[in-house]
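Here is one chain, start to finish.
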Amino acid sequence: MSDSAAMASVFRSGLLDGQVALVTGGGTGIGFGIAELLAELGAHVVIASRKPAHLEAALAALTSRGHKASAVSLDVRDPERVTAVVREIATQYGRIDLLVNNAAGNFYAPSATLSPNAWRSVVEIDLFGTFYCSQAVYPIMAAQGGGRIVSTSMTLHYRGWPMMAHATAAKAGVDALTRTLSVEWAPQRIRVNAIAPGPIPTEGVRKAFMPPADSGIPDRFAAAEDRMAEYARTGIPLGRWGAPRDIANMVAFLASPAGDWITGAIFVVDGGEWLAKATT
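Its structure:
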């Protein structure tokens, strides 16, 4: 059982019965935590990933617990494939109530030597992919009378973050896109919001954000438990690392009737970390 599954849900059973949710990057980490909670609440969850191995393991974990789930191979950088997949999902299940734009690609790299391919890869996954998927679900949600889009942002671009120019630029774009689409698509009752997670040391994050040994940047996600505990105690005001379920809870809230009058918002869910960093 995952760490997120070990946390009891604060939402009532069946809250999302009958809904269909598409979660990109849903095979691991935060994406899987989101998919897991949505499925627990009754939604049919379609998880999407570029990596078949991730999809197989995640789908097996969901269906073994009796959840309604399916999986699809998807590279969000390919707009034609995105459109085709979204149409297939709508045709098969009759609707798409929630899109979670969670697919992302991040890694440390010096800005002065960042290759065009490295820049393009992250910006295309994080920003272009968010737009392609949102644009693809628009006609479906508009035709059915509304829907929800929740995108994953971050807090690093609020204060600047060395060696993360590609990711911070892309996520700043996600914030701007969220606000723009929320206003443009409000007449169709499509609520568009974003969540900016704080430090959640999933295995994928550990790998992606492990700075080079010669970078001079401290390893915030060091494996040593004493260093992890010390950072949580001194660097995160609420005193603990985040978990995928912390982000999933916000997604579920926005997907529920409680989110009916919320659109264009970027919710920081980070235990207060970015504010503490901003004062140091």
